[in-house]
UniProtKB/TrEMBL annotation:
Pfam families for this protein: PBP_like_2
Keyword Signal: yes
Organism encoding this protein: Pseudonocardia lutea
Signal peptide limits: 1-25
Protein name: Substrate-binding domain-containing protein
PANTHER family: EXTRACELLULAR TUNGSTATE BINDING PROTEIN (PTHR37945:SF1)
Ranges for domain PBP: 38-260
Coiled coil: none
InterPro entries: ABC-Tungstate_binding (IPR052738), PBP_domain (IPR024370)
Amino acid sequence: MRRAVPVVVALAGLLLLAACGGAPASGPGSGPPAGPSAEKSLILATTTSTQDSGLLDVLLPEFTRASGWQVKTLAVGSGQALELGRRGEADVLLVHSPAAEEKFLAEGTAGDRLLVMHNDFVLVGPEADPAGIRGLGSVEAMRRIAAAQAVFVSRGDDSGTNAREKDLWAKAGVTPGGPWYQSTGQGMGATLRVAGEKQGYTLSDRATYLAQRDTLPSTILSEGDPGLLNVYHVIEMTQRAGDRVQSQGAAAFAEWIVSPPAQELIGRFGKERFGQPLFTPDAGKDEATVGG
């Protein structure tokens, strides 16, 4: 059972005291015996992009210093993160699948959903670009890839990236399938590596691609399309999802990640290494203006 109090350890300590002829202090002014204190620990279910880009390595230690809450991270696709929240197996979510998030909120087990940041998706592929998509808009690029039956590697994992990929195929009027369309069922970093090995195309968030660019043969071929905006929200879970949910920890994390210190960290992340930030902080903005 998650976060169980170590009763066996406490009992062993009492037996040791008895064996040594000692006993817990009692009497006026001594106060109650001190018991084991539960660690302030919460579970964050988030997307592989925040993990693979290195952003969490920057944010989480600062959150712990500021709040005292330790964080265990489950880096999965957004769909899986939402499912963990639905089952009460995560306390707070950091995800990027807006349509799925809105359906999830309507179920009534979550608390606040707050805008955190955005970046964008990019279509990457081999420098030789056999489908000829360089410089095209995302929808036309998908049509060209399908027409050429060039290898396309999908995450296929119900992530926010996978959801956006499906949306692009639908807009292109394409039902992908056959030997040229391959699925990894894995996160963004792994999918980028497979696409590179197969000299194929894939859809990636910009942050993960840039973080791994030096190890990949792939290059960005289509970018800047308004349809490729990638928006992240934090969602607090409540005990309506299950009595194990650490709602106080969830609220603390959500409040911190939209605070000025955290937003400043987000805005600086990537500048030194890549010459550009990998995410744009958005807390407090009107959602309709994001990316504008």
